[in-house]
Amino acid sequence: MTQRISKNKRFWMMNPVWQFFKYLWLSLKGMLIVAGGHGSTRSKDYQKSH
Amino acid sequence: MATILILGAGISGHVAASHLRRKLSKEHQVVVVSPNSNYQWIPSNIWVGIGRMKSKEILFPLAPLYKKKGIDFKQAKAISFFPEGDKNETKPYVLAEYVAGENKGQQEKVIYDYLINATGPKLNFEATAGLIPGQNKTYSVCTYTHANHAWEGLNALIQEMKNGKKAKILIGTGHAKATCQGAAFEYILNVEQELRRHKVRDRAEITWISNEYQLGDFGMDGMLLSYGSNIMKSSEMVEMVFEDRDIKWILGAGVNKIEDGKTHYETLEGEQKTETYDFAMLIPSFSGHGFKAFDKNNNEITDKLFKGFMLVDADYTPKPYEEWTAQDWPETYQNPSYKNIFAPGIAFAPPHSISKPRKSKSGTEIFPSPPRTGMPSGITAKLVADTIIDTIKKGKNLQEHKGSMANMGAACIASAGYGTFSGSGISITTFPIVPDYKKYPDTHGRKLGKTFGEIGLAGHWLKLTLHYVFMYKAKMKPFWWLLPE
């Protein structure tokens, strides 16, 4: 085993108070990215040529 | 009056059916044909597979819900497609065979005006010799019954380990071109945590085996992501997690044969190798269902509808990896030959993989197939439903609803362990799902601010929240439609 996550980092990763705010932030950011819309990638020129 | 036929009642089929029913008046008929009697929230199967969730918590019967909502449900499997009808039937139809109830074994022509093929994948265990869930000490978590078996197998091993047995656990992909690495990744981390909870972690050697060229490829060609104030590759993130948890890995492995406690695989160097294990969870390859299609004169026209999966508005021209573009990916999920047929979710044939194709020295293709599960399944199903609704209401096919996976974000919340205060999750969002190397040339095809990763307890809470939110939504409880896909 190689310790790759420091004890300090792990403390914050598992701290319920800090993680509660992370949870709110992640929920909001995830929602904005996913519900932020989707659409076409094809230009009118592409559509004409295909 | 229009009849919309939906084949399949998984995430994609169920999303389409529920939106169509809500937005169309009762004069229009929504028919769902599925061989499964239950809806299941597949992302939570990994928790069934470690015994931390009962399968009844992730499923519910479809028939009572559909009856209540006015959706016609036939528990049957599709057999063949007749998009022009036949000599006796002028309208298009799908030939289906009932799999349960008093009509079991009977075939029926299910007529439609619009068809949504949301049949998902066939779990192609047969493509790997000996890969049979529950046999040869191999398991799967692809369905809730498989996940139940996996937990039985894992629990038995844990009890033996408590009595002093040392064990080898192998988790990953069971075929050279399997996809869904994310599910296996979640499962290996959850198993590792459960072994620690049962205080037997020191007696287990855990190994990841995958057809990926690098860790963290996930069938998406890997990603460059923001992690705190750093920018790192997904391969580096996964390597950090695996090393921290003492998980070994084997990459570029095309598993081709399973024997009792032995997996045989080919490497990209062309070598044939064997790995032994006491418990394995290997994801099979996915394939189309092998449907056939016929025109009105009963001539076979399968190649107009299928290329393994269903043909849609993708650019299927064969070309090398360097020439792939975001524009190759479909946007309307409409079949080019029959405009009233759509295939969202896993049912559509992708134009090519997302990960770079690689061959072993002996010519075997070893690389992940592209994932289309979860979030993109729901989003593409909703946009197909909206296209049909607009076409019915406005009288013409407007194709206003488009959603390419190369212009669509996804949140992948990978569970890394279960527990209210001891759990963990790796939250990764990516935009777009299919990298657009022309638009984002310096950030590996993705927008960096929208492609980020986080590790911690919040990820577990988020994954658990998604479980309850999407079960609520799937049960079509009040205001369900306000929840995004």
Rg of chain A computed from alpha carbons, rounded to a whole number of angstroms? 21 Å
Low-pLDDT windows of residues of chain B: none
What is the overall silhouette of chain B?
globular
Topology of chain A as a string of helices (H) and strands (E): HHH
Largest sheet of chain A, in brief, is: none
Q: Mean pLDDT of chain B, as a whole number?
A: 95
Going by helix content, strand content and strand pairing, the class of chain B is: alpha/beta
Distance between the termini of chain B: 28 Å
Computed over alpha carbons, the radius of gyration of chain B is: 22 Å
The helix-and-strand class of chain A reads mainly alpha
Largest sheet of chain B: 5 strands, parallel
Estimate the helix proportion of chain B, in percent.
Answer: 10-25%
CATH class of one domain in chain B: Alpha Beta
Describe the structure.
The complex is a heterodimer of chains A (50) and B (485). Chain A has 3 helices and no strands. The mean pLDDT of chain A is 86. The termini of chain A are far apart. The longest helix of chain A is centred in the middle third of the chain and has 19 residues, at 16-34. In chain A, 66% of the residues lie in helices and 0% in strands. In chain A, 20% of the residues are buried. Chain B has helices at 11-23, 45-48, 62-69, 144-162, 181-197, 234-244, 302-305, 375-394, 457-474; strands spanning 3-7, 29-33, 38-40, 59-61, 72-74, 76-82, 93-98, 107-111, 114-117, 122-124, 138-139, 167-173, 204-209, 224-227, 230-233, 247-250, 254-259, 262-266, 272-276, 279-283, 285-287, 292-293, 306-307, 309-310, 341-342, 410-417, 424-430, 452-456. Chain B has a domain at 3-122 and 288-402: 3-Layer(bba) Sandwich (FAD/NAD(P)-binding domain), CATH 3.50.50.100. Chain B starts with a strand and ends in an 11-residue tail after the last helix. In chain B, strand 7 (93-98) and strand 8 form a beta hairpin. Chain B has 485 residues and is an alpha/beta fold. The model of chain B has no long low-confidence stretch (mean pLDDT 95). The chains are: A mainly alpha (50), B alpha/beta (485). At the A-B interface, helix 1 and helix 2 of A face helix 6, helix 8, strand 26, strand 27 and strand 28 of B.
